[in-house]
Design a protein that fits this description.
This protein is an alpha/beta fold. The chain contains four helices and six strands; from the N terminus they run βαββαβαββα. It has a single domain, classed as Rossmann fold, CATH 3.40.50.360. Helix content is about 40%, strand content about 20%. The structure holds flavin mononucleotide.
């Protein structure tokens, strides 16, 4: 598997972007070639086999995908490209105060990618903003393990 990683970011108030920046630091230290892509204006054909992808998104409204990622999600759903051969991980941000819709943003992307044939590596990691743990700390720990596991799975 290549050492290329692309992080797709869905965010309302910037936390997921901060998390993505932390993941960049961790993975670059491991020798990965990492790029952060905010999902604004992203088109389905930006997804190619080769790089590993990380979906890093929060949840808003009532279990909604953040505004900046809505168009991409809908375009992907409509175009329904065959994503078999694409590997990805999910770091979802949410808050358990929203019990019924906890981390639904990440969950929805996870389900869509899987439906299109992509293969998730490792478990989906869900950060709970009400836990008191800093999302960037949780993400750093997750990303290191995830990347090592992903290379081993290749
Ligand atoms: C108005 C509002 C609605 C939210 N709705 C949900 C929700 O339905 N489910 C959930 O798990 N988290 C929800 N959250 C929590 C955010 O996803 C969480 O705080 C996240 O860390 C924000 O990341 P961001 O700054 O990248 O958008 C909501 C937060 C706000 C302010």
């Amino acid at each position: 598997m290549s050492n290329e990683v692309k992080i797709l970011v869905g965010t309302m108030t910037g936390t997921a972007e901060l998390v993505a920046d932390e993941i960049v630091d961790v993975l670059e230290d491991k020798g990965a070639d990492v790029e952060v892509l905010l999902m604004d204006n992203l088109k389905p054909d930006a997804l190619t086999t080769g790089p590993l992808y990380i979906i890093c998104t929060s949840t808003y409204g009532q279990g909604d995908i953040p505004d900046n990622a809505q168009d991409f999600y809908e375009a992907l759903e409509a175009a329904a490209p065959d994503l078999s051969g694409l590997h990805y991980g999910v770091f979802a941000l949410g808050d358990r105060t929203y019990m019924q819709t906890f981390c639904f943003g990440g969950k929805k992307f996870d389900e869509l990618f899987a439906k299109l044939g992509a293969k998730r590596l490792g478990d989906r990691r869900e950060h709970d903003a009400s836990s008191g743990e800093l999302p960037e700390d949780v993400a750093a720990e997750w990303a290191e393990e995830w990347y090592e596991g992903s290379l081993a799975a290749a």
